[in-house]
Structure formats: structure tokens, C-alpha cells
């Protein structure tokens, strides 16, 4: 009998505040979709960092004959065999270095021709214009500055170049987008909470006579509050359900069926990562409105 009464009161409350309930559902859906999206974005950035940082090299480009007139670091002329041997020896003694590969000017020229075959410059370059280089793989890519400090500006070294600086710009952009999504999500969450509180207050005010009678006949505060809390929880759960649909649909249509085919160089997260976030989204969608309703009712159900 009590369960039937609570369920009937939930139905009455939802019908009386249909427009505000719909607004709560939409707000919760959008805010939780952004929340889930920001979690997935963070996981995607972490996956990309692990993938790209593993491929990052530090390159020490050596002076050639042409660099003497154009590059101040190479004013003393082409790098000597003794200087190359010294650099190789020092690199192999460094504990942060995992491996060292030497690329000749001929190999550099062949790689350039393969990668930039359509470039107008490819036909005008010759092998002796390309720099020899050491390609260093580090155990920890974050420590690239150690190599830069040790070898930049040395005789025979034209430039020390770290590929991590290139990919860091991309990761900074992605992190900025993630923070922006979190900011919008926080704003939407505040709006959703305000709507939930106002909906509960309006519902409690419209049924103040019934709740007053229930209090006079000895009903407990929890029993009186239960229909209002369940109304808010149901609206939040519906919003969370829509958020889950948006997340799964966004992954399937945007990532799997479009971006994965357009951008081959990025290792996108799988569908299992999306599914793993859905229980958290549903739990927040259920608990957040219920708690907001509970605290909002403490004042408005006093008789």
C-alpha cells in the first residue's frame, strides 16, 4: 500500500511539473554527456601520449660543407670524424639513452625523396646538402633537455631537435579542449542542479496541504520526502540514459565511422572505454538529483 502511494505521488508530481521535469532531463543529459566526453578525451590524450612519446626521437644534426656560410654554429666547417666519434661515445655513456642510430647524408636524402616526392624542392636537392645526424631514443622522453644542454652549440653540431616539442603543441591543444569541455559541463551541471532544486520546491509547494496532513497523522519525514526524491532521481536517471545514448552514438558515428577512417595516424580509444564510463554516468545521474532534492526538501516540508 505504501509503495503504491509513493508511486502514485511520483506520477502526480511528474504530471504537474512536466515542463520543468523535461528541462531537468535535458540539462542532466547534456551535462553528463559533456562529463563523459571529457573523461574519454582525457583517456584519448593519455593513449596518444603513450603512443607518440614512444616514437619520439631527439636528433643531433651535424654540420656539412654548405652550413659553413649559412649557420653560425658551423662556422668552423664540416663535422670531423673525431667529433662524430666523441658524440657517439658520450651518447652511449648516458643512462637516459636507450639507443643511438646514425643517419648518413645519403640516407637522409633518400628519406627526404620518399617523404616529399611531390615537393618542388625535392628535385633541386642533392645528397651532400643533407645533414648527417644521430637519432637518439630516450628511456624517458621528458628528459630531452639533457641532450639539448649537452650537445647544442658544440663544434660540428648544427642543431639539436626534439620531436616532443612538436607533438606537445598538439597535446596542449587537446588538453585545452578538454578543459573547455569540463568548464561547459560544470556550467550545465550547475544549471541542472538549480532546475532540480526549483522543480522540487515547486512540487513541494503545490502539495503542501497533502504533506501537512501526512505530517499530522504521524508520517515520518523520510516517507513524506520519498516521492519528491524519487521524482528527481527518475528525471536524473532519464537524463543519464540520454547522455549514455549520446556518448555511444557520438563514438560510433563520429569516431569509429568517420575520424578513424580520416585520420590513420591516431590510435583512437575503443568502444570498451566508452562502455566503461556508462555506469559512472548513470550513477551520477541517479544520485546527484536525489541528493539535491533531499537537501532542498529539508526546509520546504517543515510544517
The chain-level structural class is: alpha+beta
First CA to last CA: what distance?
24 Å
Radius of gyration: 32 Å
Low-confidence stretches: none
Estimate the strand proportion: 5-15%
- Number of DSSP-assigned strands: 4
Overall spatial form: elongated
Mean pLDDT metric: 78
Helical content (DSSP H or I, runs of 4+): 55-70%
Can you list the strand order of the major beta sheet? 2-3-1-4
Please provide the ordered H/E string of secondary-structure elements.
Answer: HHEHHEHEHEHHHH
Biggest sheet, in brief? 4 strands, antiparallel
Number of helices: 10
Give the arrangement of secondary structure elements.
Blueprint: H1 2-16, H2 18-53, E1 58-62, H3 67-70, H4 81-93, E2 97-103, H5 105-115, E3 133-138, H6 144-151, E4 157-162, H7 164-206, H8 208-216, H9 221-262, H10 271-300
Antiparallel strand pairs: 1-3, 1-4, 2-3
Helix pairs in contact: 1-9, 2-7, 2-9, 2-10, 7-9, 7-10, 9-10
Transmembrane segments: 21-41, 179-200, 221-254, 274-297
Membrane topology: Multi-pass membrane protein
Subcellular location: Cell membrane
Amino acid at each position: 500500500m505504501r509503495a503504491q502511494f509513493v508511486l502514485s505521488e511520483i506520477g502526480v508530481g511528474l504530471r504537474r511539473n512536466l515542463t520543468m521535469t523535461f528541462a531537468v532531463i535535458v540539462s542532466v543529459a547534456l551535462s553528463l554527456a559533456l562529463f563523459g566526453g571529457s573523461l574519454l578525451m582525457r583517456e584519448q590524450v593519455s593513449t596518444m601520449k603513450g603512443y607518440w612519446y614512444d616514437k619520439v626521437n631527439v636528433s643531433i644534426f651535424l654540420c656539412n660543407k654548405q652550413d659553413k656560410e649559412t649557420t653560425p654554429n658551423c662556422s668552423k666547417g664540416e663535422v670531423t670524424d673525431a667529433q662524430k666519434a666523441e658524440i657517439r661515445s658520450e651518447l652511449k655513456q648516458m643512462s637516459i639513452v636507450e639507443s643511438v642510430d646514425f643517419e648518413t647524408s645519403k640516407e637522409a636524402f633518400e628519406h627526404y625523396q620518399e617523404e616529399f616526392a611531390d615537393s618542388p624542392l625535392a628535385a633541386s636537392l642533392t645528397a651532400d646538402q643533407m645533414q648527417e645526424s644521430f637519432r637518439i631514443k630516450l628511456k624517458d622522453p621528458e628528459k630531452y633537455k639533457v641532450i639539448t644542454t649537452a650537445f647544442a652549440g658544440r663544434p660540428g653540431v648544427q642543431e639539436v631537435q626534439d620531436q616532443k616539442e612538436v607533438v606537445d603543441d598538439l597535446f596542449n591543444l587537446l588538453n585545452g579542449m578538454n578543459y573547455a569541455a569540463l568548464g561547459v559541463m560544470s556550467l550545465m551541471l550547475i544549471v541542472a542542479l538549480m532546475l532540480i532544486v526549483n522543480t522540487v520546491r515547486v512540487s513541494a509547494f503545490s502539495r503542501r496541504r497533502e504533506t501537512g496532513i501526512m505530517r499530522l497523522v504521524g508520517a515520518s519525514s523520510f516517507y513524506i520526502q520519498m516521492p519528491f526524491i524519487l521524482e528527481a532521481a527518475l528525471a536524473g536517471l532519464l537524463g543519464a540514459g540520454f547522455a549514455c545514448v549520446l556518448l555511444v552514438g557520438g563514438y560510433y558515428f563520429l569516431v569509429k565511422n568517420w575520424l578513424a577512417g580520416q585520420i590513420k595516424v591516431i590510435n583512437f580509444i575503443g568502444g570498451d572505454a566508452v562502455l566503461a564510463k556508462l555506469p559512472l554516468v548513470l550513477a551520477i545521474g541517479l544520485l546527484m538529483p536525489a541528493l539535491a532534492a533531499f537537501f532542498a526538501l529539508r526546509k520546504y516540508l517543515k510544517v
